[in-house]
Amino acid sequence: MPTPSATHRFDEDFLKEVQQGSEQNLTRCYQCGNCTAGCPLSFAYDIPVNRLMRLLQAGEKHAVLSSKAIWLCASCETCTTRCPNEIDVARIMDVLRHMARREGLVAEPPVRHMWDAFLSSVEKYGRVFEAGMMANFVRRTGRFWTDADLAPVAIGKGKLGLRPHAIKHPDEVQRIFARFRDQR
């Protein structure tokens, strides 16, 4: 588990960027541990949520953005719900994923590939086209046979459409993605 080093320099700009991006006051966290205790995925994290919050407060940019925890977070908001200080921890994790991506610090590439495949599908079709998204994910990761046995079952139950769904006002979705690109 990363700890502040003796040569640590508090990165105030990093802390301000996270607080501004998430609209959360990180100084309100007093390390009670409720977020970690309730997190259904904490068993898989390299850094527990409350420890991640402490590293944020300490301005440990590299340790935080290099963490697998920010990529494995399911954004279920259990941490947010359990926080006695009403800190939206899930929102902070989302901001951290975006920051890590911009910095090129993606600790869990398959998660990033799934995210990219999902967003690509939504951008192209206006909503997720499951079969296309999975094909895109497989192409990006090279995981050709992972869960391949599930496709026929999902198709048979009508859970995996072979054609994209039509939506109303696809131009609205395009404007959202254009606005996102303009902000980068």
Q: Can you lay out the helices and strands and say which pair or pack?
A:
Blueprint: H1 12-22, H2 34-38, H3 49-57, H4 61-65, H5 69-72, H6 78-82, H7 89-103, H8 109-125, H9 130-141, H10 150-156, H11 170-183
Helix pairs in contact: 1-7, 8-9, 8-11
Q: Which term fits the overall shape?
A: globular
Spans of at least 5 consecutive residues whose pLDDT stays below 50 are none
How many helices in DSSP terms?
11
Rg, Cα atoms, Å: 19 Å
Largest sheet: none
Q: How many beta-strand elements?
A: 0
Beta-strand percentage? Answer: under 5%
Helix content: 55-70%
Number of domains: 2
Rounded mean pLDDT score: 86
Descriptive report:
- With 184 residues, the chain is an all-alpha fold.
- The protein folds into two domains: 12-103, no CATH class; 109-183, no CATH class.
- Helices cover 57% and strands 0% of the residues.
- The protein contains eleven helices and no strands.
- It has helices spanning 12-22, 34-38, 49-57, 61-65, 69-72, 78-82, 89-103, 109-125, 130-141, 150-156, 170-183.
- α8 packs antiparallel against α9.
- The longest helix has 17 residues, at 109-125.
- It is globular.
- The two termini are 31 Å apart.
- The relative contact order is 0.10.
- The model has no long low-confidence stretch (mean pLDDT 86).
